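User: Can you predict the 3D structure for this chain?
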Amino acid sequence: MRDILVTCAVFGVLPFVLRFPWVGILLYTWLGLMNPHRLAYGFSLNFPFAMIVALTTLFALLFSKEIKKIIWSRETYLLLLLILWMCLTTTSAMYPALASLQLDKVLKIQLMIFVALILMRSFDRIEALIWVAAASIGFYGFKGGIFTILRGGAYRVQGPDGTFIGGNNEIGLALAMTVPLLYFMRTRCTNHLLKAFMTAWVVLTAFAAIGTQSRGALLGMAAMSAFVWINSRNKIVTALVLGMTAYSIANFMPQSWYDRMGTIETHDQDKSAQGRINAWWMAWNLSKDRFLGGGFDCFQVPTFAIYAPDPDDVHEAHSVIFEMLGEHGFVGLALFLALGISTWLSAGWAARRARKIPDMVWVSDMMRMVQCSLIAYATAGLFLGLSYFDYYYILIIAVIATTWLIRRRVAGLPEGEWALTNPAGFMAGGRFPLRFPWKKPALRKIPGSG
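Assistant: Here is the predicted structure, written as structure tokens:
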């Protein structure tokens, strides 16, 4: 039954992708993040849904009247340089077969990222992308939160097998990134019942993130809370809300959770933590010896035998920093960090600028919550090897496109250049658009464009 439902859902939307290529980005995002086919047990488990959607989107874009230009920005150039550098490091990879397979996966993801940078040319499309991304991971937050509460937090929340978020640590990072986006979605609702549902969804996802028993997710949630408090206009009320939430969760979780979280302070006695440190030293030694790094999937037994302090303690990178360092060297790490920092700064600029435009205050809120998600990724990512996680790059798309539109809204477009505009966003008036996505957005010239 699940196989049939997923198949009907995907192929049922494909006709609309042919008419509106940007809907293909939403469908591809849903498949890439939620992985609904991985929840089935039959033919759909390994069916190439994502490839079919990607090809349909590319075909539709080719014959559509969409503006076929990539949104170029500082972040776009950095992302392109990072991809090209990954291709270069693959040519001298320590394990060519493994590196080629991983590069193929990364390039497929990045191809659709650049397609999205062509299609995400309106605020309503950007907001719809945020909704789909957050709801895709939030699905596991909703049911994972219920699972955590019913089981008293004694068992770990896991993601679907065979995906980026299959392990408890991986789904923990994704859930931590999703909490602020769900909160933003809540602020866009005016219906009281929908708002109450979104409140429950935020709380359940927070419980699910803690219920993964991931130390990285806990640190990510703590870092996000600090950022929210620092940027809040009413720090006393915010402190009370955050404090009560933390107190409720702390009193709910069992002793086994405390025992695991307590190893953060006693990492020198924890074998898992020591294994990660050994892998980090291996990545450091490897990158000093090889300018291009070891290439994708270089964290293998022979590599540890050469570069690790303890050659018998073989681990994955368990850190986006050391994963990039070991696989792509210091240059790859520098490009990766520059991309993250640049995205963070651009999101902050967009939030400050949008706050000054009366009909775009909601865009400011969206960018602040995206910044919170980036904090969760950066903090939890210090202890998880998810450098190529498409969720992170979807947030980069949102920041690039939003910044691009705001600049043109403020300064005006050059003579004759057009862009899709809808300052009210996807959730205009706090309700789902009745004709979405069948209603074709109108092309309007931004005031001041000549």
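Confidence is low (pLDDT under 50) at residues 414-419, 434-439, 441-450. The chain has 16 helices and two strands.
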